[in-house]
Amino acid sequence: MYSHTGAQRAVLCIASPLVSLVGMGGTLVVITHSGRAANADDQALTCAIFDMRDPSRPVRLSSSPLPLSDGATLTWAGFSEGGSLTTVDSKGVVRSCLRSNGYEWVPLCHTEALKKSAHEHHWVVGVNETQLMCVIVKGDDPYPSTLPRPVLSALPLTMPLACSEPAQPQLEHDRMLQQLMLDEMRSSAMAEGTDESEEVQRNLLRGFTKLDSLNLKLLAAACKAERNARALDLARQLQLPKSLTAAMKLANHYKLPSLAERISMMMSAKFDDDDGGEDPELPPKPPPRAPPPQRTVAPEPPKEASRDADADDAADDADEEDDDDAPAAGGASVNPFAKGGAHAAKLAAAKGAEPGTSKAAKRKIPIAAGGGAKKIKGA
Fold first, then answer.
1. Quick check: pTM over 0.85?
2. What angle (nearest 5°) sits at the alpha carbon of residue 237, between those of residues 231 and 220?
3. What pLDDT is recorded for position 327?
4. How many alpha carbons lie under 13 Å from residue 315 in its C-beta half-sphere?
5. Does residue 321 fall inside a structural domain?
6. Are residues 140 and 254 in the same domain?
C-alpha cells in the first residue's frame, strides 16, 4: 500500500485471489475469493474494509462474507454518495453495508423486478439516497455503447418489506429507507468529526423532519382504524417536539383520550428537562454512550503531625477561654471545665474525645464562675 505521493506504507498478505478493490475517502475495500460454496453454482466471496486515515498503518474495520444471491456473481461494487459500500450481483439485487448497523448488509433494491422486458439489463453507475443510477442496455451486449453517449436512468430503491400495513406499502418503505439513511449519515459524520458542523446539523434536521412526517401519516391511518397500540408504537419513533404535539392532536381528533394521555406522558418524559427541553431548530441528539469506569482512590489516612497541630491549636484556644473566665489574681480557680480538671476529663471521655483536645465540647456548655461551679459540684 502506497500513499498519494508514492511512499510505501504497508505490506499485507491477501489469503485468496483478488476480485475487486474499491476506495473512497479514507476507506479501502478488498473483495477476494474464499473458495466454493456448498452449491457448485454459488460463489463465495469475502469483503474486508480498511481505514486508511492512520498515517502509520491500515486499520481493519470489518471482515465478513459478501452476500450474494443463489447462483449469482458480483457485477458491481462501489460507494454511494453518502459513503456506504454498495454491491450489485448478476441477479440484480442491490445491497449496502451500513456503518450504523455494525457493517451489516441491507438489501435496497431488486432491479430484475424493474425490467420492462427480458432482453434488457442495467449497467450500474452509482447510488444515492433514494435512486440507483444506471444505463439500460438492451439486447445481448453486456456493455453499453459509447457512441452515442449513453443516457443515465434513475431506478427507485425499493426495499423488500413484509408490509404490515397493506394500505400504505410505499409509506412503510419510505420510512424504513429514510431511517437507515439518516443513521448512516450521522455515523459517517461522527466518524469524520463533522457531526457538529452547521451543514450536517441542517441536513439532519431536514431528514428528521421528513422522517417524522412519514411516521405521522402512518399514525393517522392507525388512529383512523382505532389501532391504539400501533399508533403508540409509531409515536415512540417521533424525534421532534412539534411532531409529538401533532400526534397528540391526531389522537384528540379521532377521540382516543387514552392514546393522547400516553403521548402527553411521553412528551413530558422526553423533553421536559432542566435545560428547557430540546431545541426545535436542532436535530435530536444520538443516544448517550456509557462513560468509562473511573478509578476510585482511597482517602489518605490523617497524618500524625496534622492531628497533633490541631490538638495544640485547640488547647491554646481553651487556655485563652480559661484566662478570660478565671477570677481575679490571687484567688483559686473554681472553673470545673478548665484544662486538666476532673470534670473536663469526664466530659471528654463521655463524648469520645481525648482530654484537653475538644474545643467544640467546651463551647457547647456555658462556663460560669462561682454559682455555676457550686451547682455542678453539689449535683
1. no
2. 35
3. 44
4. 12
5. no
6. no
